[in-house]
Each structure stands twice: as structure tokens, then as C-alpha cells.
Design a protein that fits this description.
Chain lengths: 240, 326, 969
Amino acid sequence: MTQLALVIDLNVCVGCHACVTSCKQWNTSGWAGPMVDENPYGADPTGTFFNRVQTFEVGNYPNTETVHFPKSCLHCEEPPCVPVCPTGASYKREDNGVVLVDYDKCIGCKYCSWACPYGVRELDEQQKVMKKCTLCIDRITDQTLPEAERQPACVLACPTSARLFGDVHDPDSEVSLAIRERGGYALMPEWGTKPANHYLPRQKNRMHISAEELQRADNPLTKEDITVYTGEETLDDVTW
Amino acid sequence: MHPAFSVIFLTTLIGAGQGLFLALFTGQLYASIKLIEPQGAEFYGIGSVLSLLLLIAGLAASFFHLGRPERAWRAAAMWRTSWLSREVIVLPLMMAVVFFYGVFHWMGWTAPLFVVGGGTLPIDATFLLGLIGILVAFALFVCTGMIYASVKFLEEWHSPYTVANFTFLGMASGFMLAAAFSAYLGNHLVGFYGTWAVVFTLLGLATRGASLLRNMTLKRKSSLQTAIGVRHRVIEQKSQGFTGGSFNTREFFHHKSPEFLKQVRLAFLVLVFPVPVLMIGLAYVMESPTLPIMAFLIQYTGLLAERWYFFAEANHPQNLYYQSIS
Amino acid sequence: MRDPSVHTDRDTGRTEVKETTCYMCACRCGIRVHLRDGQVRYIEGNPDHPLNHGVICAKGSSGIMKQVSPARLTKPLRRKPGAKRGESQFEEISWDEAMQMLAERLGRIRAEDPKKFALFTGRDQMQALTGMFAKQYGTPNYAAHGGFCSVNMAAGMIYSIGGSFWEFGGPDLERSKLFVMIGTAEDHHSNPLKIQISKFKRKGGRFISINPIRTGYSAIADEWVPIKPGTDGALFLALIHEILKVGLFDREFLIQYTNAAELVIDDPERDDHGMFYRDHTAEVTEGCTDPENKLWWDRNKGQTLTHTKGADPRLMGSYTLEDGTPVKPSFQLLKERVEPYTPEWAEGITGIPVATIRRLAYEMGVTARDQKIELPITWTDCWDNEHDTVTGNPVSFHAMRGLAAHSNGFQTIRALSILMTVLGTIDRPGGFRHRAPFPRPIPPCPKPPHGPEAVQPNTPLDGMPLGWPAKPEDLFVDDKGEPVRLDKAFSWEYPLSVHGLMHNVITNAWRGDPYPIDTLFLFMANMAWNSSMNTTEARRMLTDTDENGEYKIPFLVVCDTFSSETVAFADLVLPDTTYLERHDVLSMLDRPISEFDGPVDAVRLPVLPPKGECRPFQDVLIELGARLGLPAFTKEDGTPKYRNYPDFVVNYETSPGSGIGFLAGWRGEFGEKFLKGEPNPRQWEQYAANGCVFHHELPRSYQYMRNWNKGYLHWARAHALTRWAEPITLHIYSEVLQRFRAAAQGKWPGRQPPDRLRKRIETSFDPLPYYSEPLETQLIDKTRYPLNALTQRPMAMYHSWDSQNAWLRQIHSHNYLFVNPKMAIAQGIEDGDWIWVESHLGRVRCMCRYSEAVEPGTVWTWNAIGKAAGAWGLAPEADESKKGFLLNHLIGEELPANGSAGSLQHLSNSDPVTGQAAWFDLRVRIYKAEQDGAMATEPQFAPMPSMPGQDARRRGRWQAYVAGLFGKN
């Protein structure tokens, strides 16, 4: 069975929010839209977004890491949000593992959001139905799009290509490879939700310099006269 | 969690409704084996109406919780997996049982269908309805409780205490209401119902107290470390990614100070448990017709606070992701 | 719901895709705008565009919301009779009335004294046109926003290596091994840099960020080196010290391609002390070049002309020439200069441990030396030496305003340029690479006018409005050495202010110093808010009146797309279009989007019709030029020469028959030429057919070493990029600066500074980089204001532009002051507290947020999030004004008058060399505010009411956008 998912590379994410608004603009006018905004030009503006970029600080100054952390629905393999839905509006697609909401069936009871530890479902406060990341289902399954464009909007937008997209069940896919080779991990594994989305950790490149490398025979300083004699007195002048 | 008044009223009202029904039938059961004075059709009829009104009020309150109440009927679909769906089925069933229980009593359709117990216990339709009602009422307590207890992410709720609390506190308030009802009617069941109400209140105190103790020492499964997958002692969120709030900041957090929470806890611990018990005791001594009514109203008010606190004290792991704006 | 997998989005309506260029920031990515039934459905990056390769950022993805913003201005407006300026009371007028009013007023001024008209523009990307309009009009008072943006970065590097960062050049991360980023803003060249940093990290490159704050790109650095603001110069000098001391410099590169080995006269008694010794008998190309008549000291033969075949010159030592002149190689002077700048010395200033400074120097030096790249590319240098390979030392740098926006920024950036040069990384693989039209001569050839006689009634300005002084005679001053320009650019106060000093225009015009003006025309510059320093005072100056009740700045014209704070102060408002509604050119004459591999320029094509009565500003200027009868815009019979901007772009040539126009691609009658060629009537169509971008990829042998690459330089001359095909030697030692210093010392035969400025010039025009504390820091009480206060650019916002954007403002609707907890706790300030931030000018109130990612002596906030109430189409109670705040209120546009400056009154708070606004020099203290009930930020201003023509739609509580429709439910 296919399980589509995102793999997010925290090693290169700079927190630019491109995925946040590219998602919004694709989806508000698409299958999963609209994505309503409340008080768009007033106090406390708030709206539906399927994807957020958060910022965490790890450690104390000066050993601080700033971690930008994009988060959207993880399309769990054991999605706890699905069985709790009383109407069957929340479902996981058989063909590709994407977790979706059927707005026509949703009664807006919010129970699915309680059953999600990741806080990725958002109630449309105007339409009063639950909405969430669809992995741009209307892009990735649209056979009329060129294959390169059959990807979620966030993946196409991401300037650092920190978002990889593919089938995590296919061991040879780019995403599986990344998870395997780069230490991809799941969020909150303690709940057994088996998120399909994975995260790749930070990696550090360091440099080591040995003393030999600093003092080499071809040092350009050897090309210069180290001292210049300008007529001062030396021991040669006063001793015997 | 954000304590939504719709759900607070839903759970407390139907709890009292179920409890009242159970009290009515308990009374009938005791009367049928001649342990207490039998009551007339009026007592059961009006009592059932009261119970039904509570259930209806609870149901009505629940509609305010739904974004799309007109589609509520769809909620019965997933009974195989969803406790919410099950509640949606059992609640109308409960209402039907109470309705027919009341109607049969009111209409006097109480001719024995058969007799058991060596001729001592005649079984009529209301008796059968009552027995079914017990099952349905407990099923409903379980469904309602399990809606919360089954969400493993809400660790404050994810324990057998939740079902026990819903059951005992619902029964306490129901029996308290029965005592109040009896006091209002001026019959002699105030002591009977009062005693049971005290028993359930104390049981409720035991389980609620146990759950409070449990929650105080709860060791959370999730942490910022597991939430973002970084191993470090010191992790702080600086930005949740937006400044004006979202569904995730509204639905899962009470937005009140810890101090306020403590006060609510104190309030319900006083209002639900010692005060009604004392009042019932006092009513027993003074034979006051108003004290039991006061006791019920105070306990119910306390239960509203208890339920508010129930929601507020539950800390959803998603809150790890929504802590700070900048 | 329908099964999404069987339904195609494109069936929902009539779908079209139009290509154009983004303008949600200065980056200028290619975009594809998807329309559904004529309304914007979706904007995506153009995968075929050389800049962004299909990616798009948060701002670019939110272009839709710019289109529907209630802040849009849609009608020309005039201040209501009787209404006071600043109250934002306007009445609609027709375009014809507006143009007539302008033409009449500007015509009168032009006939009397053209300099009384001042035109200043923001980040407009149309300086080619606006500058030309100003020149044609005859006013010297023109500049764009560069003076308060990053002119130090431009000038400091261009005066050293003939190119600079951002549009002019950048780090070659594709081949680099070590990337050092210093004080970078995330808003320039942002998508290309993001793409490159990511690739760089993935292929194992080491990324070091030196910055007081760890945000943005710094977050993913392998190492963060926190530094105290304004001390970067000290760090660079210490790095150079260490690299020279250990011998990690690229000797061969320094000798061949820089003036390191060239001999400088070393005799303080002589007037030409500090100048290069020149052999006047040598045959040289005269002009805007670096004549090759200087000497080396060959180790065997002694004095010899530079680049003599077989010579092996000394870099160090001191020598006496045959005529008895004592000389030193300029590298020796550099060595002497950096001698005291030890890592130990720098530690105390920068806060960076000695061991870290040493290690950084070694990492740079060893990587440059040991990980050399040899590309098998043959090329020929200017001295006809054939090279089989191109060598690269793969250490690259990127820096921006963290260095630039300090009053010591010019010399700091000189130090960085020299560091990059001694490592041998200039226009080489893996190092710094130029972007066409750079490299340019040091300094580039255009010069400002030289005196007040350049300004004459009804006559175009004699000279370029902005230019690159190379000697005191190039300054734009009168006989007494006093400024001719309103902003005092190119005067002795700020001699190399190559981008002008827009930040002093309002203050100078208000004070009438050097002279009062009549009309100030601001295009797209928010001078009543975040584009001014000392904002509260700037707002007061705009409304201040003289004793007759006349405004001190009599007439203010504002052209903008949105109701910014500045619009409220206008007497005349002209509504501009958005980027989706007009033609634009990103021209080789301005700041093109060239790549390392060759020149690139681009256009915008309208995707949507203009909203309301909006008109593209270019059309307005061209019509105004014609109405005023400016020669470039009118035919001989006085009728307009151009119908509109597209017509102008196609047909205009810089001079008749020059073949140079605004667009470089598809020139010539049939579009067969590029860069230079006859006008092509079908040029726009050809751009449209090619994704709105023209990209000429140079042959590989022309892609490197372009300062000295004979093939490239001749190609550039053949294609009119440059006039001279002479080598562009890197200036480790800046004789240009020495000329100004000599003038200050009375040793220059020509112009000399007024006495009050001699000391300042002598100090700041040091031919070798030095470190000094920022000017404001020298003048204020550091114990009272112990903290540095900075701003950072959030990647989801471009300056003040995006608060009107319903999506982007949800990410940053208000801002906090970030403080290091250690510092805050010591002052009893808790996370989230309301605090006062106080500078020598005043104080602002805001909320604070703890952060472990900031150097403890620094506090910072996101730039320009705070707004004045009611501005930008927002409700008066919007977060931006109630919880957001602006740091600019605290930053002086002028230096504090006290202290050692003595008689130097009214000096701009700017770099004394370039006039770069020193807004990062801000010193503050913070303390807890009394926590009273309803808290809001301070200062607050009376809410700006909505203007006629502003979208009254006020959709109320909800906005649900579905491809141009609202509220589908």
C-alpha cells in the first residue's frame, strides 16, 4: 500500500513561511477551500492554515540553536483522529494513505481535533467544519498536471527544498532513503500513531586543523625578508 | 482544554437526568419489595418528565457544541469505533425509555405481566422498562465517560476514574434531585433519596478525589523533546508561527490563570461534596422542605464548576506546540 | 464532497496562466500567475526562471492578498481645503486635475530654481527612470532609499574590489567549502540565497554565522558566533592580523591582482605621502581607469613597473627608490596597520573569545589554501598571460546591513573586502563572484555634478544625479565647499554618499539647511514612519509651519499603492498600481538580476487591469515629463514623444543611436542583438515569450577573474557594459581615500574641506581600514544606555509593506523586544512584561520576549511591524498599532549635538564617508513599565481615517477568498 508523506529537513529549514502561505493560496481556492480569515484587517487576526512554521530555541546562550519547525498533518498510519469521528467524515484514503475530511459529512464536533496530539486540525470558524492538510490531494492526484507539478504546493514553494514528498512505503523512494540515511524520526512516537511524515535532524559540519597545516614549507612569509637592517647597533658592533 | 459550556451542560444535565431516572426506579424497586412507601403515578410521571427535561436540555446544549447541528443525525454512523457515535445512539434510547417509563406510570399501565419471587414480586411494564433503563442509563454513563476517557492524549481523562466520576456524580445529582423532588412534593422519601444521594456523593468524592490526586502526579508522556524530536534539557518555544491566535489556541486551553483554576477546584470541592451532604443531613434533622432543593441546586452548581475544571485541568499535548508568540 | 482524485481543479473555471516577475520584495523571482475566470487563483514560482528555479517565498505566495487589500489607493486625492496636513482629510480629483496641478507647480519651479523640487523614491526598482526624470528636470535633489538601506555595503566593496553583495555579486556557494555570513538581512536576494545555502549545506559545506542574533539563515549555521553590534571591523582586522601573521594569505593572488605589492610613498613630509609612486614616463591608458604606472620592488632587480614579466615583487619591507623616495608596498602598510589588532585586542571589543577568533582565521586560511579548486578553463589575463585553469579558494562571505548600518560601516566593509582579498577569493570559483554589469572600475566612472552651476533654470542637470567621486574635485559643492544638494550628499560632510542621504531630506528641508525647497515628491517611501529615523519628529516637521502659517515644506506629493502613514501627510496623492497591474523593467541601467554566469534582466507584464483609477507611476512620470516639456520626453514640436511606459521602454535610447535602452534583451530590429542594439518594436512580446526574463550566459572563460580577464573585459566593452577594458586592480590600499585625507591635511592641490570638517575627513578617509566606535556611541553616555538595539527582517514581511496583507499579517501582527534573559532578570523584567525602551531621543513602550539567541548586550525586534493607528487599511484597534511598536522613534537622524563633536552641529547620524544612515548604532536602556490596566504600545497617534476610494468593502469579520470571490459557503 502506498503511504504518501512529507519528510521535513530541519537541517536546512530557515523558517521563511513559504510553505505556510503557498499552502493557503493553493488550498483556499481549491478542493479543500475556502480557508477563511477572521478579523483580516482588525485586532487579533486569525484564520485557517493547514501548515505553520514555529520557532524553538534549544539550549542556553551562547550555545543556542534556533530551530524552525514546520508542522502540518502528519498523515498517521494509525490516525487516532479517524476512528473517533462519529460521522465518518474523517477518513484515511485506501489508495495513498492521505487523511482527509469530507466537509459534507462533518458536523463540527471537534472530537477529531481532541484525538490528535499534534494540533494540526483547524475548525473553519465560518463554515464550522474541520479542515486540515490534504497533501494537496487535488494536485498530487491530478493527472492533467505535468508530473513535476503533481506535488503539494508547499513542496514546490520551499526555497530550501526542506520538504521532500513521496511514498514512505516504497523503500527506494527519495523520502524513504532520506529517513533511512539521515536519521529521519517521527514526532511523539510515544503515542503509537505512526506518523507518515518524518523529520530529518540538524547535522553539523566541523573542521579540524592540525598544527602541521598551519606551518608549512610553502608559507608565503618565507618569500619576504623577515627583518630589515636599518643601521642600529647590534652585538656585532659592541662585543668581541 | 477549553471548557465549552455546551459540553459542561450536556454532561451535567444528562447525568442528573439519568440519575433521577435511576432514583425513580430505585424507589419503585424498593417500594415493590415494600421497603419504602409506594408512590403514585404522579410521582413517577412528573419525575420522568423532569428526567426527560434534563436529558432534552442536555441534548439541546450539545447542539451548541456542534458546528453543523443540522447534520447531527449523521453522528450515529460510526458506532463501531466512536464513543461519541455510541453516545449519540444511546442518549435517544435513554430518552425513549424515560419517556415510556413515565407514560406507562402516568397512564396507569402497571398491570402485572407476571409475578416472580414466589408470588411476592409482580412484574409490570414499568418494571421491565426500569430494568432496561438501568442498562441504558449505565451504558450512557459509560458512553459519555468513555468519550473523554478514551482519548489517550488527554491523560487527565484517560483513566477509569472518568467513567466512575461521570457515573457517581450523575447519580449523586440525580438522587439529590429526587430528594429535592420528594421534599417539594412533601412525601417521605427525602430521607431515602437523601441517604442514597449522600452515598453517591461520597463515592463520587472518593473517585473524583482519586482522579485529582492522580492528575496531580501525572507524569506526561509527551514533552517538547518528543514534540519536536530534539534531545536537550532546555527547549523553549519562541513562536507558534502566528500572533493572533487560532483554533489550536482557543480549543485546547482555558486562558485562565492557575490561581483561577485553584479557586474553581476549591469551589467545586466545597459545593459538590460537603455542603449538599451537610444540607441533606440538616434537612433530615430539621425536616425542611427547602433545604434538599437548595442542596440539589448547590450541588448542581458545584458540578458545573467540577465539569469546567475537568476540562480546564486536562492538558492536551498539542499545547506543547502552541505556547508562545513573538 | 467530490472525490478530489477524479476532479481537476482546472475544470472549475476558465483557466489561464500568465508569466511575470514578482515584486513582493526586492528579490524579483519569476512567477506564473494562474487565473480562474480572470481572477487570481494561484501564484507559483516559474521553474524556468534563472533566479528562483520555481520556488517562491511566503510573500510571493501572498500576492493575492495584496491585490484585495483595503489599503489600496484607487483615486487621485487632494488635501481638503481647510484640512490640516497629517489629518488625512482628502477629496477626490481627476487625473487631469492632478497632472495639471503638478505640471503647473513643477513648471514654475523649474523656470525659477529647479533645485526647489526634490524627488526621492523608496525601494522602487525604477531608478533608471526616476533618476533620468530628475536629471531632465534639472534638480540635483534626487535619490532613492540607498542612503538608509545599505550604501556602505555598496560603496565599501565597490571602492575596494569593484563589486559588492546582493544584486552586484555574491558568494559562489555552488563551489564554496566554507561560507561565513555576517550581519545579513534576510530580505535581499532571498530566494536565490536560500536555495544556495540549502544546497551548500547538503553537500557538506561548513557554514559559520557571525551575528549578535541567531535567526533566519543563521539558525541553520554549523556555528553561531555572537558578536557585539558595530564591532565587526575589529573582528575582521584581527582575522587579517592572524592570517598575515601565520602566513595564510594568497601571495600570488595579492601580487598579480591587487595593489598589495605596489609601492606607496612613505614620507610624511611630502605632499604626496601616502600616494602610489607613479612612473610618469610609463605609457598608460588615461581615463576612468587605474593607470598601470605604479611600481613593484622586485627581489632581484629592485624597482620595476608593475606586471613586468618575470618580476617577483616583495610584499613586505621598506625601500628607497632610485630617486631617493622612501616607499613601502601597500601590503607592508596593511601589515603595520593590523599589527596592534590582535585577537586579544578584538576579544574585548567584539566579545568573541581569542581562541574562536584564531580558529576562524585558521579555518578561512587553511580552507582557502588547502581545498583549492582548479577548473579546466583557459583564459587570458589583461597582461596577455594565458592560463590553463581557473583557480578558486573556496571561502565565501555574505554580509549586509549588520555591517553597513553603522557609522563605522564603510571602513568595516573595507576590512571585509580586504579579508576576502588576502584569502584570494575575488571572482574566483567558490569565493565571491560578480554579477553583470560588475565588476566596474574602482570607483565606477559616473560622477555627480561638480558645482552649483550644474543647476540652471529650464535646463537638465549637468551631470549624473548620483555618481562615484574619485577625488575632491568630483564633489558636488560650492566655492566654500558647502553642499549643493538638499541632502548634502557629495559634500565634505559625506563625500562618498553614492546613494544620497534620503534620511535627512525632511529634516534639511524643514530647517531650510542648506536651503528651503518648494515641493517634495515621495514615491513609495514611507518617510512618515519606518523609512525615517526619529519618526515622531519627522511627522512633526512635515506639519510644521512658519510664522505666516505656511508649511515649512510647502508642497508634498506622495505616490503609493497603499495608504501608508506618509500618505496622510500628502497634499496630493497619486494612486500607483500593484506589480500585477503594470509593465516594469528590472533594467541593466538600474539593479538588474544578473547571475554569476552572465547578465540577466527581466520585465513585469500586467496580469490584471489596474484597480479603480490607479495608474502606473512610470506612465505618470512620462506624461509629466511631456507636460513639462523635458527634452527626453518631448518631440521637437513639443508633443509627447512616448505614448506610455511600454512605448518608452522600447524606443528610448540613452542617447540617439546609442543602442542602449532600458532592456538588454532582444534588441536590434529583429531582436537578434542583446545589451546593445537598435530599438526593437517587438521587444515586449519577446520577453513575454521567454518567461519575462533575458539571460545571456557568458562563455565559461569569461565567467571568472573578470577584473583582469581580457576576454571578458573586451566583451563587456563591445556590449557597452563598460567604456574601459583595463584591469580592475583590487584596492587593498585605497589611494582614492588618501586623496580626500590629503585634502583635509592641506596637502591636496585642489579642493579642500571647510576647516570644521578637516579633522573628520582626515580620520575617516584612512586609506587602510581601522576600527573606531560608532559615532553615536562616542557621543552618548554608555553607562546610561548600555544596550545595542537592532531590528531584524522577518522573512514573511518586506519592510512595512505587508501589514495590509491579510495572510502575512497573521504571522506577524505585532512585535516584541527580544532580550537575553540574563540581562532582563537582572533588571527584574519577566518574559512578556511591558517595558520602556529609552534612547537619548525618547522612549517607546512595548512587550518583551526572552531569547537565548541574542547576545546579552543586544536587544532587538522585527522591523516595521508596528504601524500608526488606521494606516495600511487596518482598523484603528489592530494589533499593529496597539501591540506593535516601531524602534525608529528612538533612532536619531542626526547625531546628538553634545560631546566631542563640538561645533559640528547638525551632522547626520551617518557614516562620515558614505552618509549611510547609522540606524544600527542605536544605544538604549530598558526598564519595566508600570503595568496599568489597558496596556498599549507607546507612542500612539490619532487614528488615520479611511480615504475616498479606499475599498469601503470592509468585509467585516470574515474573509474567505476563492479565486477572486469572497464568502463561498
